[in-house]
Amino acid sequence: MTITEEFYSEVQQAVAEHQPELSVARIDRLIILEGRFLVYGKDGPTDTPNGVFDSYQIKAGVTAGFPIEEPAVFEEGGRIPRTADRHVFPKDGNCCLGVWEEWLLTASDHRFATLLTGPMHDYFVSQTYYETHGVWPFGERAHGKLGVLEAYGDLLGIALDEKTISEYLKLLSHQAIKGHALCPCGSGLRLRKCHGKDLDHLRRKIPPAIATKMYRSIAPTKKS
Q1: What is the pTM of this model?
Q2: pLDDT tens-digit profile of 102-138?
Q3: Residue 73 is part of a domain; what is its CATH number?
Q4: Which top-rank group of organisms is this from (predicted)?
Q5: Residue 128 in contact with residue 54, Cβ under 8 Å?
Q6: Cβ contacts of 191 within 8 Å, gap of 6 or more
Q7: Do 121 and 25 share a domain, yes or no?
Q8: Structural contact between residues 95 and 88, judged by C-beta atoms closer than 8 angstroms
Q9: Alpha-carbon gap, residue 203 to 72, rounded angstroms
Q10: Residue 224: inside a domain, yes or no?
Q11: Are residues 75 and 113 in the same domain?
């Protein structure tokens, strides 16, 4: 999938307004952001320059699949340890901005500017706060798959149980849900006699494409 001129222009405008010290380049099928990411107060870096209280050297790659595909963001100044405890994926070294589907389903919109001023900015605010106070200002989920399950359970409004969460997401991934399907809660009842209304509500909240992405992220890997 190639980067469209419209999306490239959107990214350029968002960066110019909210992160003016980042460069923007298009390389192959990626948009690359590189430079100093500013951490600032509510008024923003361009309205009140004195509101900038920290910065991080970063590099990020954004695909044409945004917003469904999460950008890869790297802190390159050696300031943030590459450990799960600091919300960095140890294997690849990219920053964990949170559970991506949680942002997709709760953000007011999915413009690139909303990413810059939301998850990305919150991530680096949190890092600065942790360095000073030793605690995370917005709380934190468990690391790895457990944290993903916590987020999914919250989004679905159900208990933290991997099998139940998987069954809900598998059903929500279907384009059409029949009332005679077994309820994913595990009761053994048909959907229309159990949590049918709850599933209807969730369908309006979680599109099949996102439910499929969520289901695949926690489904056991099949061995060849």
Answers
A1: 0.87
A2: 999 999 999 999 999 999 999 999 999 999 999 999 8
A3: 3.10.110
A4: Bacteria
A5: yes
A6: 177, 178, 179, 180, 181, 182, 183, 199
A7: yes
A8: yes
A9: 29
A10: no
A11: yes
Q: Are residues 161 and 118 in the same domain?
A: no
Residue 171 CA to residue 182 CA, distance in Å, equals 9
Q: Answer with the one of 99, 133, 167 that is the final residue of a domain.
A: 133
User: How far apart are the C-alpha atoms of 120 and 191, rounded to whole Å?
Assistant: 39
Within its chain, how far is the Cα of 6 from the centroid?
A: 22
Residues 98 and 157 in one domain: no
Asked if residue 223 belongs to a domain, the reply is no
Q: Which tokens go with 21? A: 């010290």
Q: Running DSSP on this structure, what letter comes out for residue 191?
A: G
Same domain flag for 129 and 206: no
Q: Which domain holds residue 203?
A: 144-218
What are the helix (H) ranges across the chain? Answer: 5-18, 100-106, 112-115, 121-133, 144-156, 162-172, 196-205, 208-218
Is the pLDDT reported for residue 47 higher than 50? no
Query: Rounded CA gap, 18 and 214, in Å?
Result: 30
Q: Tokens representing 206?
A: 């979680």
Among 133, 168, 191, residue at a domain's last position? 133
For residues 144 and 28, give the distance between their C-alpha atoms in angstroms, rounded to a whole number.
31
